[in-house]
Amino acid sequence: MTRIAIDPITRIEGHLRIEVEVQGGVVTDAWSSGTMFRGIELILRNRDPRDAWLFAQRICGVCTTVHALASVRAVENALKITIPENARLIRDLMAGTQLVQDHVIHFYHLHALDWVDVTLALKADPEKTSTLAQSISAWPKSSRTYFKGVQDKLKTFVDSGQLGIFANGYWGHPAYKLPPEANLLAVAHYLEALDFQREFIRIHAVLGGKNPHPQSYLVGGMATALNPNHTATINAEKLGLITKLLKQGADFVSQVYVPDVLAIASFYKDWAAQGTGLGNYMAYGDYASDNQGKPETYFFPRGLILGRDLTKVQDVDHQQIAEYVTHSWYNYGAGDATGLHPWNGETKPNYTGPQPPFELLGDGAKYSWLKAPRYQDNAVEVGPLARVLIAYAKDKPGVKPVVDGILKQLGVDATALFSTLGRVGARAIETQLMINELPKWLGQLEENMGRGDLKIHENSLWEPSSWPKEAQGWGSVEAPRGSLAHWVHIKDGKIENYQAVVPSTWNAGPRDAKGQRGAYEQALIGTPVANPEQPVEILRTIHSFDPCLACAVHVVDPKGREYANIRVV
Amino acid sequence: MANPEILSDGVWAALERSMTSRTTSRNVSRRKFLRFCSAMTAALALPLSYTTQVVEALEQTRRPALVWLEFQDCAGNSEAALRASHPGFAEIVLDLLSWNYHETVMAPSGKAAEKSLADTLKDEKGKYIAIVEGSIPMANNGIYCTIGGRTALDLAKEVCSNAYATIAIGTCATFGGLPAAEGGITGAVGVGDAIPGLRLLNLSGCPANGANLAATIVHWLTFKELPATDSLKRPLFAHGDRIHDLCPRRPHYDAGQFVRAWGDEGHRLGWCLYQMGCKGPNANYNCPQVQFNDATGWPIGVGHGCVGCASPKFWDTMTPFYRALPSVPGFGAESTADAFGTGAVAVVAGLTAAHAVGSIIRNQGAKSNGQPKAKKTIEPNQTPARPTEE
């Protein structure tokens, strides 16, 4: 038996360490550890709740914007503020844009190198790559000349002997299965996606002033001024730019990203049986079509699936969430076997890990700065796969035909979804669904502006003097990586307490009191490892979740102060 | 081109030995490079003995190496780098520099990733640029951030002290940023405070503008030196002027035309956001000129105030974000706006400048911390006191 530590896990956001035991060439046990924290919730205390979104937004710069959105929603929920429709539309446009851009970056720049051997692209016949490209897509950049140019550029790069970010990759590993021409296609699109992500996210600069960390949110609405008859505001010129960028996004997603995922997946169908994981999936749901945020109007539906049973989707009740610290570097007053609701939690750090520098984490009793959230004591997976499965099982209009079509094209059945490959595919599916939807929301915004409705902010409860002495609320978002929620307790116009449970806490968290593994840990069991020095198979499954560790590790109260009770409103 | 395979093993060994003054590495990439050089020598019809000179000449055209470390960060600056457009990230990483270590984007993980770092430290010692993103936690033996079992401080010391220069990117790496804000407990500090004495450039901002990172790299490649800086070690090209002085809404400020409620008529007419808490008068940054995302927009342009994100301790000194900077006599009147707006008039101990007044009030009358009074270097007080005017 060999114990391997992989740290840093790269091509993710944040600091993740994975330790696995390998026996007979497969993973027999796994430990997921977050190794950094900042303590943002503590920093938020006693501050103006209207400022909170700017702080919370910095929880993550990759899934930038989603924490800002969760934060303003939490405060608005506490203060019972209903935002104007234009503000909702601008927020949804920004969040949906973020989801599309983030998923494309994830596939090409964070995940593709687990499936694509860059060096093999040098051996490709550009003519064959051209044929392959034209057989799967109408994307115009598909000529032999084009791919020859990419290959020449790559050759110059490799011949320089300075491989930069590609140095020491696991090139030549037997787990790479793509033929040379597919590798060349992927390398070309890796480079094109770099241009795409930069261009597409300009939508955030139009609506939010910048990306990362757009700066136009407000408690009560948005600061994005609307006026079709002024140069400094959202006018027809800016709407035209967004329209153009959305069109480019739709072209790239449907002609490059989705065909590439399908093409690459067809060479890796064995990964539809790997990384199967917990089999429990949860989504809070998001993108309401009414301003009250009613779950029944969600574009991404809410639900819970247990034991891979797609015939039964349960509702989600936040009060059924509890967090454990049994294997996290904290203690609970009532004992570490206790599970506490996030709004009733306590956080007393108790670092028992090895003092750095260290090789291995030790006995594994406590091994992460992440807590272990559970739903009705079930470990659950969140993210694109959970969302697509819930929409599929609920027969959300427009979803089932897309999913079934893709399954048919790959020649697999629905059980293939419960896998590493399923996560990759689900991400592409929901990107396509979202890019189809975004122009509709823009159209609604344009229609409102055309009618003279320029309202973007509900002013009546802006001043703290208009607030109740005490209030509490929560706000949830379906972030690119999954279900995110913030809880806030406001007292005397200031933040009394602030709490966040984020997607990667659900997925990357450690074991709980019962010893149930977290989603990453469970998904790694049974993963083949051909060469422990080159654990590309482990990276495949971990990356299929799109880890975001800065999000996951931020909850700490070292002074051991108890969080006040927060009733979920 | 001649076939370098004609070289005997003995020649290879001699060639490699001759290179040991430049590098002791004999990894594959090095061998490939030497092979390439010998082929070049043959192609130029030079005697084989000239290969050493060719190697040296070519090595001078080797792309400068860079490593990017991430500590207590949100990766926002890594994302900002991806948004750079002239040059773009692909050009920077593939054509201009040798981007040898950057966890967010690099291919290898774990030990293979560590090798990329170790190789650079060994082969490019004293020549590479180190970029640091995120603050460095000093409390509790550094356990709040470990990578590969090593603390952020341990890694930063080794990497930055062997670099030609270090660029701290983003306000966490420059000045401690969010983890260092009041309430934080990790002992977070910026690179300059964690490791004094480095050749350091502070590319501040939350996150730093990708355009400014690209500009810094181009500056270094073009002028063979790092750009000139202000007293906070921030490049003058990005932080030489106040936002307020460059703001396209400045005429509305001078004319006393202010947004007074979100979405009001003034807001829809692009008026000044001062009353809504804009910190533009208190912040030095080139946002109004360069803007973000390929000059597509910037926060004030879209209708939200500046939060002073490139300034030290802005999470404490610039908050509450929606409170207007304190008023001063004559504020808003065109006749006197220039007196405290442009700094053209002598600043008397920081008392008449709107920004300085803001700092002093926010720090409960704390005395000046001795920062230079020159226009280009006036910044919010660095005292980490929390605002008390609730």
Short descriptors:
heterodimer, A: 569 residues, alpha+beta, Cytochrome-c3 Hydrogenase, chain B, 3-stranded antiparallel sheet, 38% helix, disordered C terminus, B: 390 residues, alpha/beta, Rossmann fold, Cytochrome-c3 Hydrogenase, Chain A, domain 2, 5-stranded parallel sheet, two-stranded antiparallel ribbon, 19 helices, 8% strand, globular, disordered N terminus
Would you summarize the structure shown here?
The complex is a heterodimer of chains A (569) and B (390). Chain A is α+β, with helices and mostly antiparallel strands and 569 residues long. Helix content of chain A is 38%, strand content 13%.
Q: What would you call the shape of chain B? A: globular
Largest sheet of chain B: 5 strands, parallel
Mean pLDDT of chain B: 80
How many strand elements of chain B?
9
Number of helices, counting only DSSP H or I runs of 4 residues or more of chain A: 16
Q: Which sequence of SSEs, written as H and E, runs from N to C of chain B?
A: HHHEHHEHEEEEHEHEHEHHHHHHHHHH
Indicate the radius of gyration of chain A in whole angstroms.
Answer: 23 Å
Helix/strand structural class of chain A: alpha+beta
Radius of gyration of chain B: 25 Å
What does this protein structure show overall?
The complex is a heterodimer of chains A (569) and B (390). By secondary structure, chain A is an alpha+beta fold. Chain A has one domain (2-113, 196-568): Cytochrome-c3 Hydrogenase, chain B (Orthogonal Bundle), CATH 1.10.645.10. Chain A contains 16 helices and 14 strands. In chain A, the strands form six sheets. In chain A, strands 1-2-3 form a three-stranded antiparallel sheet. In chain A, helix 4 packs antiparallel against helix 7 (180-200) and helix 10 (384-393) packs across helix 12 (420-450). The N and C termini of chain A lie far apart (50 Å). Residues 554-569 of chain A have low confidence and may be disordered. Chain B is built from 19 helices and nine strands. The relative contact order of chain B is 0.08. Chain B is 37% helix and 8% strand. With 390 residues, chain B is α/β, with parallel strands linked by helices. Chain B has two domains: 11-223, NADH:ubiquinone oxidoreductase-like, 20kDa subunit (Rossmann fold, 3-Layer(aba) Sandwich), CATH 3.40.50; 238-390, Cytochrome-c3 Hydrogenase, Chain A, domain 2, CATH 4.10.480. The chains are: A alpha+beta (569), B alpha/beta (390). Chains A and B meet through helix 1, helix 4, helix 6, helix 7 and helix 8 of A and helix 2, helix 4, helix 5, strand 2 and helix 6 of B.
